[in-house]
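Chains adopt folds. We examine one example:
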Amino acid sequence: MLKIIHTGDLHLGAKFVSFGKNASLQRRALLDSFKKIVDVAILEKAQLLLISGDLFDSNFPSYETVNFVKSELKKLDEARIFVAILPGTHDCLSNDSIYKRENFAEGLSHIYIFDDEKVVKKEYPEFNLSLYAQANTANKSKKNPLGFLSSFDLKNDSSKYKVAMAHGSVQIEGKSADDDWPIQLSDISKSGMDYIAFGHWHGAQDFSFGKTKAWYCGSPEITYKEGKGGLGQGYVMEVDLLDNVEVKQIKVSEKNVKEISFDMGIFSDIDGLYKEIDKLADKNTILVVEILGMVDPSIFVDAKKIEEDFEDKFFSIKVKDNSSLKLEEIAERDYPEEMVIGQFIRSINEKISNAKDEEEKEILKDALQIGVAELEGKEVL
């Protein structure tokens, strides 16, 4: 059995400006996550560790961060665990690449960097495995990071196991951009690989297709709040290559990102909102709150104050106020009949006048408030 640990998108050196006073703590947590991964690889007696891009948040990490990575790679080398590192989009193989300035494999026979875009295959005869990968050379590109596989006659590759790394974006409508190193689902099924170690999306998720197992490992620690779905951030993949490829998700971070929306229309006062937020209190949670709906004029929503009042109950809290003030009165004279919004108001007022009971009248009044706000571009729904 051949055991692989698959990670990526560590983004060592990320600034975390939005985390305020906890920014330095999270930068330290990223370094700790790499140490945890090294420990997992040693504990699980893995033969190979794959880092599928964005080990660093930029091509200019600090001297301390570079030395830290070198020391952890040395531990892996001493444990005789092979490591393969792919430059991603943040630490791409550009002219000023960190991988051109620093030799992370110097004196370490088990460490390999794909630091030449012309070199796209690394053989591991010890494990009867061929590893395919091509370094990203820019942050954005319309180039398919798996496209190079078509140049190989994989049927003549005698290796028992065939694995690829790729840092890019599987193309899903509304979720992926075509200049974000695009990968088609068909590229996965026709790749001829046993396993593809994807990087770039920060949420761990399965994109296995056809006979090929393929996973985004996601970021092992909270990096950016956006993760593109899946299991979320905080995982590494343990891949066992047998007759059938088995993939297990290992949680390495205690933190989580929670996004939640509150409709202010259900609260009679601001205390109601505070009580709901307080129920979510957790020092390991990065909370993103969106406030929606129509707010009664007697209720004052102050997003900044809410953040300040709860900053000690969460690792981080961000509040977006997208609510709209409920109007005391919507007068037809303020909206000319020739305007769409004027026609809407007159139509709903007529329905209110003809309502069969008070319940229907109240529903229509709410529809009037929401409709006017939406037509004014306030997006309260």
Notes: Residues 332-375 form one domain.
